[in-house]
What does this fold into?
Amino acid sequence: MALDPDKLLALSFPEIRQRYTARDSILYALGTGYGLDPLNEGELRFVDETRLAAVPTMANVLAYPGFWMRDLDTGIDWVKVVHGEQAMVLHRPLAPEGEITGRTRIVDIVDKGPGKGALVYVERQIKAAEDGELIATLLQTVFCRGDGGFGGKPAGGHSPHPTPERAADLVVTLPTHAQLALIYRLSGDLNPLHCDPAVARKANYPQPILHGLATYGIAGHALMKGLCDYDPARFRAIEARFSAPVFPGEAITTEIWREATGEAAFRCRVAAREATVIANGRFVYAA
It folds into this structure.
């Protein structure tokens, strides 16, 4: 069944109400590489319940609507879906535990043409359950590799942030480990592409890949380390484009360019493969 853009734009997602705990915050932190250096006090505040702070990028997994591209009647070839881009604005610091609500909607669809795939733009707003105050606004770009050529509009969506051509001002390299995707999936994204070798081979990968949002969280980790001294209250917004997969166990190097006050461009690379895995990154923080 072909992708039907009108049907997708009219798709109704129920409001999700979620209570998350300190355990959930710690699990997310572990799934994005915090604690791999057990002597780093900056990392330990995100995995130690006695002084716990929430990793800001955890907002991306709260009130998650599930793998709706497979579970709902969308016409999307879900096996060939990859995460294209992610943008996040944090309107207030995220608490390490609490109750929130989330509303998801599809805001745009772009047809790149036959054999070139389609882009589906999905917005989610996270609010505090007790007073309805907006905590975070998320915008996800889903690259549907098998669904182009349905007759939709050929342009639209989000313009990528340019990457400077000069040498980076700051470089932060963080390790991953072979079990990272298996840990990260416990924060809610159960796509078998990240745990089942047979599904990965069907999608033309030699092994399960790391979740795009796990790579994104590791980029956020590098930015927190390099620009915020691990202070989550300084984190304001982040956006990036996913350009290549990461295989669990690979080290990720984040190159950072300071721009205007409180703004930076960044990209992430796996040097061992000479692969850029996150491109066109932009970060906003309290300087």
About this structure: The first helix runs from residue 5 to 9. The first strand starts at residue 16 and ends at 20.
